[in-house]
UniProtKB/TrEMBL annotation:
<keyword id="KW-0812">Transmembrane</keyword>
<feature type="transmembrane region" description="Helical">
    <location>
        <begin position="14"/>
        <end position="32"/>
    </location>
</feature>
<feature type="domain" description="Inner membrane protein YgaP-like transmembrane">
    <location>
        <begin position="11"/>
        <end position="65"/>
    </location>
</feature>
<keyword id="KW-0472">Membrane</keyword>
<dbReference type="Pfam" id="PF11127">
    <property type="entry name" value="YgaP-like_TM"/>
</dbReference>
<keyword id="KW-1133">Transmembrane helix</keyword>
<protein>
    <recommendedName>
        <fullName>Inner membrane protein YgaP-like transmembrane domain-containing protein</fullName>
    </recommendedName>
</protein>
<feature type="transmembrane region" description="Helical">
    <location>
        <begin position="38"/>
        <end position="64"/>
    </location>
</feature>
<dbReference type="InterPro" id="IPR021309">
    <property type="entry name" value="YgaP-like_TM"/>
</dbReference>
Amino acid sequence: MYLSQTDSWYLERLIWLVAGIFTLSSAILSVLHSPYWLILTGLVGINLIIFALTGFCLMANILYKLGAKPRLNRVSQN
């Protein structure tokens, strides 16, 4: 079984937290207020697919600019 490290709030862990909060919030709002909130759930899913295919994540860029540090840093090869 794979368990992620939980010793700090690193960038990759924060991305999953934000995606979960957005998805759960939009599902609850769709039940309590309007089904149009499910559009937010779809946008979160599309963003996760784009990240998996391209490596680009808008939320990661925003969190990085706010000071979140990635767990692993890319080592440049010369």
